[in-house]
Write a structure and sequence with these properties.
Blueprint lengths: L6 H9 L5 E6 L1 E14 L6 E14 H10 L3 E8 L3 H12 L7 E3 L7 E7 L4 E7 L7 H14 L5 E5 L8 H13 L4 E4 L13 E2 L3 H8 L6 H15 L4 E4 L5 E5 L2 E5 L12 H14 L4 H15 L10 H5 L3
Parallel strand pairs: 1-4, 1-8, 2-6, 4-5, 8-9, 9-10
Antiparallel strand pairs: 2-3, 6-7, 11-12, 12-13
Amino acid sequence: MTSVLSAARARELVARFGETSVLIVGDVMLDHFVVGRVSRISPEAPVPVVEFDHDEYKVGGAGNVATNVRALGGLVDLVALTGEDGDAGVLRAQLSACHIGCDGLLADPTRRTTTKQRIVTTRNQHVARVDYENDADAGPDVERALIVCVEGHLQRAKVVVVSDYLKGVVTRGLTATIVQQARTRNVPVLIDPKIPHIDYYVGATLITPNNHEAEVATHIRIRTDEDARRAGHVFMERARCLGVLITRGEHGMSLVDPSGDLHFPAVAREVADVTGAGDTVIAALALSLAAGATHAEAAHLANHAAAIVVGHFGAATVTPEELLSTF
């Protein structure tokens, strides 16, 4: 396709990222890496013995969207749930280290902080993962507290991102409130979806399913750009949203909205790890729209951001300088 974004226009938009404030609402998690060395197999079972070396912690889920926004220069408000446990303290410390405020993190004593503990080797080989979580929807009192918190933070937001990981924060009532109140302020709402909640997203500005999610929601196998175009229209009708951006890995991205249908070929030169790429995409989209980009311009920038982040191992972030270097 012909480029919809010149290098000069990209510089103009990215220069405004520092003036933007993004409200992120969703499921935040703590990624705990237990790192060690493997030199033998256990005599008790055919599994590797990992000799512990060190622990690493990172923020995942909606928190990773927040760290991506901060890395690109934007301001962030994060509304999410944690438990009242030690992992919540570690999570808050990690967010603070990234200069992300924690006043929107609500502690729910009935659940534990969502934590993904991965046992990995010093050579980045995964041995096992243990999930600690309670994925029940937030109860009525907690949902009301989340709504009040969102209403307070919406005052300065130029764009809202809903990061749905099916861990209990993104309820029907909360999502409806976000869309309704954002509309009255002319603030775009972007959603990184989970298909069981597709009926929650009515009225959203832009939804970003990946290839598999789009196939499941539309019952269309996506193998070509035309398949993606058709699936995008069906998805948009089913979700009753204003636009859809399907992220398709090595096949790029496909944008469907009232202004037309566009396909963005992948620009990645070398793919090391796609972990967290969707978080980078929606962070770049949000900042671009808040900076005044069209959907097409925002998708173009997000496509370039994704090309950078998949070249790194693990969930990574992109700086403005790295982003502009690709144009």
